[in-house]
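Closing statement on the pyridoxal-5'-phosphate sub-project.
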Amino acid sequence: MPSPNPLLLDTGSPPIPEIQRWGSLYNGGGGPLLNMCQAVPSYPPAPGMLERLAIAAGDPATASYGPIMGNATLRQAYAGDLNRAYGGRIGAAEVAITAGCNQAYFVAMMALAGRGDAVLLPTPWYFNHRMVLDMLGVEPRPLPCRSGRGFVPDPEEAAALIDERVRAIVLVTPNNPTGAIYPPEVIARFHDLCRERGIWLVLDETYRDFLPVGQDRPHGLLAVEEWPENLLQLYSFSKSFAVPGHRLGAIGAPTALMPELGKVMDCVQICAARAGQAALTWGLDALDDWRAEKRAATQERIETVRAAFDRLPGWDLEALGAYFAYVRHPFGETSAWRVAEELATKHGLMCLPGPAFAGEEAHLRIAFANVDEAGIVAMEERLRAATP
Ligand SMILES: Cc1ncc(COP(=O)(O)O)c(C=O)c1O
């Protein structure tokens, strides 16, 4: 076979299939396999959403191509949703609908950076963010986040890493993999830094709808009349509406950048899946209570996870939020890959090791949103059984 693009060969493979392979070797002795390696909601979409998806899928009109940047009605509804969440007056022209947030990120990076440029990514990072940069020949420049600072990145450390090659800083909040929620003032400082240095701030807010109850405004950057000129914001409908298979996300950007984003989007998606777009146009207005209920339930689950780790000697819960617990394992110098393998093959608990995110060997990411309350009880039992 002629060799493929070396940039693809040089990037790592997605880690989840490997963990799932380990899970398939588990003999079931400790109870059913627990999948806590992938961040997906453990519940189905709202019944009204499923009905509308079915109706839209049966309508010949949704089988045709749609506008590159998304249905006008959905863009309008999403802009309204943003304004409710952030207190701004953003218009439909400043947002576009993508085939999921991963694609929104790909589109953003293609639009902002080219071969030889660099982008600052706080570590531990979301591995797909690094992979995309590798594939584009863009240097993913790590900005280490430390447990002692709650895994919140430091704008001063970021400033020291910026040189003429850096085109953007990417922040994920609430964070994957750590669950850390960045304070609004830290996000504002990053935005100021990017403006001063003439680079972009890219905010991936996939988990925005899972902020703690009581924290309703993620940050103040979008409490504005017009989209800030150096900001891109990415969102996912996968988690918030429990529709990851329908592949829908969004990107917000200054209107002047939209034609460039549109070029990429035309090449990679032509348009986002249209049945889902139709159903979401309804869901964005109609499912506020449903979203609030899921947010409260996720919060309860967070407390259940916290209580479980309080009872587990040797396991230190170093960060917790949205869908994730980021924990220090009690196996000392043992590689986190090895620990994750043992947990999957011997105890039927699949989770991801810190190094999968360029994090430390001491850490594991446990995606608890993937299981129900009984699953968290089972997690505690399995971790106790595995404790040295
Ligand atoms: C930070 C982050 N961004 C993007 C995505 C991908 O979301 P989507 O399903 O909308 O592509 C995920 C999914 O796990 C994520 O954690």
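DSSP finds 14 helices and 13 strands in the chain. With this model delivered, the sub-project is considered complete and its resources will be redirected to Aim 3.
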